[in-house]
Please model this.
Amino acid sequence: MKNKHGVMHNLVIGMTGTALLMISDWLMGACGQGNVANGVVQSNWAKGAAWRYEASFLIAAVAVFLLYSGMKEAVRQIRMTRSRKDIWTIRMAQVFELGGTATIVSTLFLHAKGCILPILYKKLYSTSLMGADMLSVVDEVFFYISIPFYVLSVIVIVCTSVPYMYQVFRGRLRVPKWYIILNPMVFWVVGWILRLFNAYVITDFTACMVSFGLMMMLWGILQHVAKIPERE
Model:
């Protein structure tokens, strides 16, 4: 494989970006003990430090540049696993490219939503508005961006995870079959299950599960590249 070390270097840079996204997600999504969800509004937003959301957005802005190197390389590696004998490997490579592109394009938008709504709620909390009025305002603001938010979230999680899982299952990636679990969708489901325990420490940790799954997926592709002979 030509420039193998350069490929691995790009994937490591991408993993560094996902590590920063994990920090950003935790600062944005961890609400602490005693939090109560009211639709999209979290009760602890009112007492949360504003710097957390500002720092979260700034970290995400840096992370997306690093993530670009990793996702661009991941898309190329998945594309190289295509086989003319299996048309689905070609289709999955195309879907993965869509998911990878959406990940880069939408990361700042998704984090902007996650940071602006808490700041908006904090500002409203310091006014004379009643609680129901504050909830209504924040819900209405979210309503205007809810469709692209949910659509992009699904594309990012599903369109990267499913193709990766398929290529691992078909043996197109040179990694053990159990690597099939190393993807954002599986970790998102795990996070959803953990939140059922309703323990704030666990719930706060699950805020960064998708980013962690993205990191693990890049790790899986990195392991695939590491096993490709230099001359192949």
In short: Strands lie at 37-38, 41-42. The first helix runs from residue 4 to 29. DSSP finds seven helices and two strands in the chain. The chain has a mean pLDDT of 89.
